[in-house]
Amino acid sequence: MKLHSYDINKNYKTSVAYFSMEFAVDQALKIYSGGLGFLAGSHMRSAYDLKQNIVGIGILWSFGYYDQGRNEDRTLKPNYLRKFYYFLEELEHKVTVRIENTDVVVKAFLLHPEVFGTAPILLLSTDTDENDYLSRTITHKLYDSNERTRIAQEIVLGIGGLKILEAMNRKVDVYHMNEGHSLPLVYELHTRLKDVQKVKEHVVFTTHTPEAAGNETHRFDFLHEMGFFSSLTKDEVHSLCNCHKEKLNLTVEALRNAKRANAVSKIHKKVAQNMWKEVVDSCEIISITNAQNKKYWTDKTLIRALDEHEDYELQARKKHLKKILFDEVADQSGKMFDPDVFTIVWARRFAEYKRPGLLKYDFARFEKLLKNTQMPIQVIWAGKPYPTDSGAVSLFNDLIYMSHKYKNIAVLIGYELSLSRLLKQGSDLWLNTPRITREASGTSGMSASMNGSVHFSIDDGWHPEFARDRRNAFTIPAVEHSLSHDEQDKIDNKNMMDILEQKILPTYYENPKKWTKIMKNAMTEIDLEFDSTRMAKEYYALLYEYKIQEGEL
């Protein structure tokens, strides 16, 4: 079956299967939670633009991640609504995978390239009449909180994805694991190839997080019982992982079974190399910095004004985009924001280390800023906490309670692709506040900068590769990461507020020409390295076509 509706570019003939737990390609296809999906979506769009020989392999989540609703007091209420997608083609191909000694049927749906302008994506589902109810629930919810279900999802993605490709007679040269979720495909390859070097020649791996929680670890015996290792015996797996430990780390085993791996920024490469330096037989970790698809994320009228050097038109269009965003603010909160007022947005996945509340750490100072009539501000928060992470949900709800008292604060729900694009196009400043060394890359600030929302960030992730302080971005100075969390928060908050009060706001209100110049620099310079066209090219050159040299194994 022909999957690509386009002729493959001769420079990208190597056949790649790109395995990812989530893809964010369009608002209409709700099979993603956050940054990993946004990254995968931009990659698939640029693969389409470049006519690359890539097929995405993901899961068709029947209920998606979750839909953000509100309780009566306006706090977060996770909702689960079954989704239907009539633009997907249900394929005749079905395979079975063995999960916990049960045969589970996996069927596939095809997202054709022309639907959203992406590489073809095969989406797997166990939600079919051939399966019992428990098996059907495997692909109900992205990142299910039940450990057994999570492992079953990974088996479906890795082994089910490989078998579907085989059933379709799809020749694959390279299997790309976007994070360690699809690791079971490695063990399925071992059952077939029975040669460690041959397996490595066909596998590459991207690690996305320096966070311990993002690097999954499970009991070895439990994984074996679940069928994680395909048909391999315990002894065979022990010999492959060169360990007899009670637990197995998915990232470690991905590094040991790939020909090459990449971190997602230059800083993250150093962090990852240090984090995994004790791993025996690890492959090399290089850096391929994340990027976003400019064609998808940018407002075309804004870009035209930039290209034509029409500052007045650029400023007018930005004000119009703010009005569009503020219609959404009014609809959700009943608050009327002013397009002439400086607007700060903090929007991304809600997690403690990302510090969504850093702006209000010194609350008296923050409140004074909110009430400043000479240089007024408006603040918008948005993002999705993991629904069973009580700490993250509490952070979100605390902001909602606080917002009730101020007419210039809004906390929005529904943080998906459409709202994300509204926020990036309609904000003046994109605030990013992770703890230092804890941000692998981050991507939201890239697409914000593409739309003239100036990046104001901790000096971590992708930011140091782009930022020229006060020229195209603003940088919160790095602090020593060994300091206590409270000490870090105290110093970072002070530095952030100093820059905001003394540099950013005076520039915006007292020197609008200079602010417009900073906007234009950001929009122009982000193009150079952070459009995902560059990234998609680098994956081919540095990962997919990389050949293991003699003596590396």
Can you characterise this structure?
The chain has 553 residues and is an alpha/beta fold. The chain is built from 21 helices and 19 strands. A 9-stranded mixed β-sheet has the order 5-6-7-2-1-8-9-12-13. The protein has a 6-stranded parallel β-sheet with strand order 16-15-14-17-18-19, sandwiched between helices. Strand 3 and strand 4 form a beta hairpin. Helix 4 (147-167) packs across helix 5 (184-193), helix 12 packs antiparallel against helix 13 and helix 13 crosses helix 16 (417-426). The two termini are 36 Å apart.
Low-pLDDT ranges: none
Number of strands: 19
Termini gap: 36 Å
User: Helix share of residues?
Assistant: 40-55%
Rg over C-alpha atoms, rounded to the nearest angstrom: 24 Å
Mean pLDDT: 96
Most strands sheet: 9 strands, mixed
Q: Approximately what portion of the residues adopt beta-strand conformation? A: 15-25%
What is the helix tally? Answer: 21
Question: Strand order across the biggest sheet?
Answer: 5-6-7-2-1-8-9-12-13
Shape: globular
Backbone structural class: alpha/beta
Element layout with pairings:
Blueprint: E1 16-19, H1 35-50, E2 54-59, E3 67-70, E4 76-79, E5 89-99, E6 102-111, H2 113-116, E7 121-125, H3 133-136, H4 147-167, E8 174-178, H5 184-193, H6 196-201, E9 203-206, E10 217-219, H7 220-226, H8 234-241, E11 247-249, H9 250-256, E12 260-263, H10 266-275, E13 285-287, H11 294-297, H12 300-307, H13 311-333, E14 342-347, H14 363-370, E15 377-382, H15 390-403, E16 409-412, H16 417-426, E17 429-432, H17 444-450, E18 454-458, H18 463-466, E19 473-476, H19 485-510, H20 512-530, H21 532-544
Parallel strand pairs: 1-2, 1-8, 2-7, 8-9, 9-12, 12-13, 14-15, 14-17, 15-16, 17-18, 18-19
Antiparallel strand pairs: 3-4, 5-6, 6-7, 10-11
Helix pairs in contact: 1-21, 4-5, 12-13, 13-16, 16-17, 19-20
